[in-house]
Amino acid sequence: MKTLSFVPSPTERDAGPDGTPIRTSIVAPAPAASEERVLDRGCPLPLPAPRGALSAALLDLLQGSVDTERAEAFHDDVARALTARDRATSVVEDDDLQLTLFCLYELHYRGIAGVTDDWEWSPVLLAARERLEALFEAELRARVDVPALPEPVASSVAAALFTLAAQDSGPSIARYVAKDATDDQLRELLVQRSVYQLKEADPHTWAVPRLAGAPKAALVEIQTDEYGGGRPERMHSALFAAAMRGTGLDDTYGAYVDAVPSWTLAALNMMSMFGLHRRLRGAIVGHLAAFEMTSSIPNRLYGNGFRRHGYDETVTRYFDEHVEADAVHEQIAGRDLAGRLAEQDPALLDDIMFGAAACLTVDGWAAAHVLGCWTAGTTSLRSRTDA
């Protein structure tokens, strides 16, 4: 398998004096463990490398003080780029566009290293983001097949969502990981997932102030578990960081952004777009429902895959936690969150089902990319020289 210089490459093991396998070190070893690292001090995203003209222009702009004239020039760059864009080119596969969106969204999360927080609410940047989002959303709505709408009754909506999740025919990375993935591929899986998992739950939390009554209470119940019930070391993002450290990876927030392809960024950008727009609150609720409904069994398989390679509870705890938690969450998300929201406001039902279908579809595209690379004997990650 071809490997990259900034991801864990060695898969061979040396044997110790007693014959016990010893894992070799990786090129970018994890920093030394400490309580501060385990509990996460909220470091911003490291400044990514640009992937094209738009992301280069944005990153250059963000490294200076807020400048309306320069921001307007960037907005004009976006407008010209979208006008000249080949309509046949997929937005989801456009590395430059997805990284640009990702960085604009990151201003609303932890920020970017060296970038002033004053950029977050720049009207010109928001206008530029709106142009990119319009193109992204239009492609999703055109390419995602939404099933027939159920009655806006909690039990009917929940049943329709469970049926949609059960009918998902996307490729299963989980089954491959459980039986066939190499040690190197397990680390790649963690790298691919780290861009979202190290901020796990945050995109869906944007919906909390946009809901009321039973749906709000249901979402808070789910998110309370995601955030460890008030215990920082039990936050799911902290458990995932521990899994990364346990496999020799760097668990720093955003450490592998430059390594992941457009498919991975698109899946997270979709969540951010749904969560940050009140008009798309139905979509983020539907997304979370599908996300939870397709989590429990896959996480059991992921845990088995890591155990197959000799990893201990430090690494598997994240996956094992989700087997039980998400079996409960899927019931809450289907009936009490999505179903009750549809009862409150039937006009949101279309977007609830769209958000669920989009979750399964986009995650399926990302999974197809990863599995296609792995079965071909290549890495699913980008090289440093990819533009």
Automatic annotation (TrEMBL):
Residue ranges of the region described as Disordered: 1-23
Coiled-coil annotated spans: none
InterPro entries (UniProt xref): Haem_Oase-like_multi-hlx
A Pfam entry, by short name: Haem_oxygenas_2
Record protein name field: Heme oxygenase-like protein
